[in-house]
Design goal:
The protein is an alpha/beta fold and 234 residues long. It contains nine helices and nine strands. The strands form two sheets. Strands 2, 3, 4, 7 and 8 form a five-stranded parallel β-sheet that branches. The structure holds zinc ion (ZN). Zinc ion (ZN) binds next to strand 2.
Length: 234
């Protein structure tokens, strides 16, 4: 069973709203065949980050990166470089703990402190939060809403953290991704970074445009409401 389905089932059991329409359909016309958002969790990765951001920009791909606060201590990175290369930053939490049944104080550290760090270092307030493991509860949605963060899940998961060969990651994504999809990857792995560049080339050859989450939501007419959960944009 796919992670997207699991997320939807989990949300249904919790009676939490998930904004998800059918993704993957391609409209006819003279523009791109469709729009896809590549997203990367768990960074930043210090010196490896700049070259990766630049390589994506050179291909005309704008992506979204979900940052962990603790990584900034181990891998100091210039967060302003993301926007400088056309990319978007989101919140992934401070310590990467799973956020179910956590106290309000803990949630404020995980979401609020990380959002503040991004704003201070990048000069831009993040609009998206991706909960580690895709796990969240009503308290997470409430705080995300107060912080003007929408919750971003995903609709395509190559499990690159598990299958760390470039060929496996590329094959998995290219067999699934279509218009409106949100692809989950982790740019902390060299194989994932190499796969991402190959995927960008292949998806562009199919006519797709690679855009940030905010751009994808805007193109698809999604409101991206604070505190609401989105897995893709059909
Ligand atoms: Zn993560």
């Amino acid at each position: 069973m796919g992670k997207r389905i699991l997320a939807l089932l989990a949300a249904a059991m919790l009676l939490l709203p998930v904004r998800a329409a059918a993704c993957g359909s391609v409209s006819a016309g003279g523009g791109p065949a469709g729009y896809i958002a590549l997203t990367f969790d768990d960074g930043p990765s210090g010196p490896a980050t700049e070259a990766f951001l630049q390589a994506l920009e050179q291909r005309g791909a704008a992506c979204t990166f979900f940052i962990c606060g603790y990584r900034m201590q181990d891998f100091p990175t210039d967060l302003s470089a993301y926007a400088a290369h056309g990319h978007e930053l989101g919140v992934h939490g401070w310590s990467h703990i799973y956020l179910r049944s956590e106290s309000r104080t803990t949630l404020e550290t995980e979401l609020g402190d990380t959002a503040q760090l991004i704003e201070e270092m990048a000069g831009l307030r993040p609009r998206w939060f991706r909960p580690p493991g895709g796990l969240y509860d009503e308290a997470v949605c409430t705080l995300a809403g107060e912080l003007d963060l929408s919750i971003a899940l995903w609709s395509v998961d190559p499990e690159d953290w598990n299958h760390r060969t470039q060929a496996q990651i590329v094959s998995s994504i290219l067999s699934q991704a279509g218009d409106g999809d949100v692809v989950l990857m982790h740019d902390i792995f060299p194989a994932s970074r190499a796969a991402a560049l190959e995927i960008v080339d292949a998806l562009q050859a199919r006519g797709y445009a690679l855009v940030t989450l905010s751009t994808l939501a805007a193109i698809k007419g999604a409101a991206a409401e604070a505190g609401a959960v989105y897995s893709c944009f059909g």
